[in-house]
Amino acid sequence: MSGLLPVEEAQARLLALRAPLLPEKISFSECVGRYTSDDILALRDQPAAALSAMDGYAIRFEDLPGPWTITGESAAGAAPDRMVGAGEAMRIFTGAILPDGADAIVVQEDVADDGAMLTLTGEGPGARGRHIRARADDFAEGECLLPAGTRLTPGAIAAAAMSGAGQLAVGRRPRVAILTTGDELVPAGRALAPGQIPDSNSPMLAAMLAGEPAIVSLPHHVRDDRAILAKLLKELARRHDAIVTVGGASVGDHDHVRGALQDAGGQIDFWKIAMRPGKPLMAGTIGDAVLLGLPGNPSSAFVTATLFLLPLVRHLAGARDPLPTVHRAPLEIALDGGDGRRDYLRARLKNGRLTPLIGQDSGRTMPLAAANALLIRDIGAPPCDAGATADYIVIA
Length: 396
Ligand code: AMP
Ligand code: MG
Fold this sequence. Notes:
By secondary structure, the protein is α+β, with helices and mostly antiparallel strands. The protein has 4 domains: 7-21 and 172-316, MoaB/Mog-like domain (Molybdenum Cofactor Biosythetic Enzyme, Chain A, 3-Layer(aba) Sandwich), CATH 3.40.980; 23-39 and 146-171, Molybdopterin biosynthesis moea protein, domain 2; 51-133, Molybdopterin biosynthesis moea protein, domain 3 (Molybdopterin biosynthesis moeA protein, domain 3, Beta Complex); 326-394, Beta-clip, CATH 2.40.340. It is built from 7 helices and 26 strands. It has helices spanning 7-16, 154-162, 201-209, 226-239, 257-263, 298-316, 366-370, and strands spanning 23-27, 40-41, 51-52, 56-59, 68-74, 88-92, 104-107, 111-113, 117-120, 132-133, 144-146, 167-171, 175-181, 185-187, 197-199, 215-222, 242-246, 267-271, 275-276, 282-286, 289-294, 326-330, 342-350, 353-356, 373-377, 389-394. Strands 7-4-6-5-9-8 form a 6-stranded mixed sheet, with no helix packed on it. A 6-stranded mixed sheet has the order 16-13-17-21-20-18, sandwiched between helices. The longest helix has 19 residues, at 298-316. The radius of gyration is 30 Å and the shape is elongated. The relative contact order is 0.14. It binds adenosine monophosphate and magnesium ion. Adenosine monophosphate (AMP) is lined by residues 180, 182, 184-185, 197, 199-202, 246-250, 252, 255, 295-298, 363.
């Protein structure tokens, strides 16, 4: 099909519409899910000295199999006040600094301690250096722990906190407005008149953005009225980094997003993508805000939000790799060949195999509820048998 933009090209054009937001410095308690603006460099060695990895006794390996005279103690939080000499053992605890002279730890389960003398009752350390964490074995001062644009997961936050830093520079969170359009929509839970339906896309999109670094304002709703829509777009553009419209992006008489964007002084960058669902996706700018126009059908909105909205938010928040990761797995069943649009089939990945769900109509919500993957069938892909490998994106 000609005139439809390939997904990758559309993603690249969308992300090029606006540079990432400026960074801000925040504390560790606020930074989960944010993206680092600078490389996080280690300000210290970790550990800063050789430490014991076990509760036991620090000894000289060459003194095995003992016995030893017990001389003092090294506990976490202080430096040992003496060294370990020939025939000596120092009581030591996990995380405590290894005293000079010692080069192995004998764990307390392997010895008998009578208060003065220590005797081996078990196997003892099998090698020099056993149960010792070497200085800088986690990381060394100056090492890059997290490159700029890394998502701060709980594990990454642990490394950043251990680095010696007190605060982190992260990308600001984009302010994202979600704007639903359609005379038929009613907030979920309200009574419905004939022809009306609950707005399912607002809660779905809010849920998709809940784990993302975005300040989401919703729901804004407008009837299918071009003038009202244009006025609201103008207003929202002043206070947001991105405006996401849902519905009204297609070619029907009541699809006003494109016209309203133009009336409001905005520009369309692209419209219509070689994908299914989601063909009517639209992107442009209005003032400093990026406008992303998602189609209204629930599955279309979901798939386009996965492929465009989440990457846009991550890009604005400073992500180095904002696009969804594509994985590969074998198919449970045979698949027809692809046509002129790339398919994103709502699918289930179970025991390492992919099954497209029954009912790929983009108006349905039930396949969305059941899906944990989007199975990708490329433009012009040949038909394939069960067991063939296919690309997919994780969605749950
Ligand atoms: P549109 O993109 O406006 O042509 O809408 C396509 C289909 O999606 C129509 O059946 C709409 O009723 C439906 N739809 C649009 N917006 C929503 C929404 N926020 N929640 C649920 N369905 C919607
Ligand atoms: Mg509509």
